[in-house]
Amino acid sequence: MDLQQLKQNRNLLFWSLHMLGWSGYGISQYLGAMLYGKPVAYVQYIAFAATAGCILSMPLRYICRWLWKQPPAAMIAGGIATAWVMACLLRVVLNWYYHCYVEPEWPMKHWFEYLAGAMSSTYLLMCWMALYFGVRYYESLQTQRIATLQAASLAQEAQLKMLRYQLNPHFLFNTLNAISTLILDNRNSTANNAVTGLSEFLRYTLDQDPMKKVTVAQELDALNLYLNIEKMRFGERLQLNFAIEAAASSMLMPSLLLQPLIENAIKYAVSPRETGGKIRIGAHVTGGMLQLEVADDGPGMIDATRLANGRGVGIRNTRERLQVLYGERGIVAVNNTDPGLRVSLTFPAERAITPA
Questions:
Q1: Residues 68, 132: Cα–Cα separation, whole Å
Q2: Which fold has domain 166-348?
Q3: Alpha-carbon 51 to chain mean position
Q4: CA dist., res. 226 & res. 231, Å (int)
Q5: What is the location of CATH 3.30.565.10 in the chain?
Q6: Distance separating alpha carbons of residues 334 and 341, to the nearest angstrom
Q7: Residue 11: its pLDDT value, please?
Q8: How is 135-195 classified by DSSP, letter by letter?
Q9: Long-range contact list for 170-179, CB < 8 A, 24+ apart?
Q10: pLDDT (tens digit per residue) in 100-146
């Protein structure tokens, strides 16, 4: 049985430590007896003392379990009292054996001489109890630490799912409005294709675990499901430019991270203008960091640092997702260009593991 299995089997762990502790006590006393040249009878007394201590201290485990649940003052007082009572019982047994088998000629003038050495035995049993409480306290801290880590992990997962899923109603609203417009314009075939594309995209979002990362190439495939719908709406007015480095394609990223940024670009740089607009999607790796960007040639922002207009929802959501996943290493930069707006995302590059 390995150490991990021993830790999981609390009974086996306790009895192993209990036997080991009293064996160590017996060995230390034996070495001391050899050093001072004690007779064989005394060596036998040491073996008896270690065995008696091992047996008589067994109930301490169950007493300590009860004391552990008490207030600190009661636990300390109860522990001292218990150690003294058990020590007195142990000394009676040991002194009786010593009187009978080691020094039979030793005169017993008073009955309380059977309690001789009770104080030193009290200290010994108090050490036993202190070790027990120390192990229990350590286990309690470990349990609390694991529970805290699990709670933090669940909270992080819930936050990420919330951030991912809160975008879907917004996107769905815009897309259904677009399909409604196509129907009103009697572009039924285009509307039907848009509904089919919407169905495929929603199926992807439902199947994709928000906690699971995808490669940049997989993200672009998912984005194409969305962009095909928008191309049906805007036709030649929507111009796309992809600048994806080969090294970046196999890097991992949070799923559907770019979709709200592209949706913003379409809403503010393409839709309002009769001539439409251009959107550039880029990805490259620099210094161990993956850098993604979505840029358009629209009107930009009056104050890009404050995110005062409607673009702020998607950008804030993206920033929060990166902060949850990467902390301070997840960076979102928003800059006005001439013309347009560029949103850059930077976070640690992780290469996807290819199956052997």
A1: 10
A2: Heat Shock Protein 90 (3.30.565)
A3: 45
A4: 9
A5: 166-348
A6: 7
A7: 79
A8: HHHHHHHHHHHHHHHHHHHHHHHHHHHHHHHTHHHHHHHHHHHHHHHHHHTT-HHHHHHHH
A9: 170/260, 170/263, 170/313, 170/314, 171/226, 171/259, 171/260, 171/263, 172/198, 172/202, 174/263, 174/267, 175/229, 178/229, 178/230, 178/233
A10: 888 777 666 666 677 888 898 899 899 999 988 988 888 888 877 87
Residue 260 token pair? 């709200």
CA distance 210 to 163: 9
Token couple for 21:
């502790």
CA dihedral 173, 178, 183, 185 (to 10 degrees): 150
pLDDT for res 195? 85
Supply the pTM of this predicted model: 0.55
Cα 195–Cα 201–Cα 204 angle in degrees, nearest 5:
145
DSSP per-residue string spanning 247-305: HHHTBEEETTSSHHHHHHHIIIIITT-TT-EEEEEEEEEETTEEEEEEEE-S---SSTT
Q: Please give the structure tokens belonging to residue 245.
A: 């480095």
Q: Considering only 28-42, 62-76, 181-195, 301-315, which range has the smallest mean pLDDT?
A: 301-315
- The number of residues in the chain equals 356
List the one residue out of 248, 209, 254 whose CA is nearest residue 349. Answer: 248
CB 171 within 8 A of CB 134: no
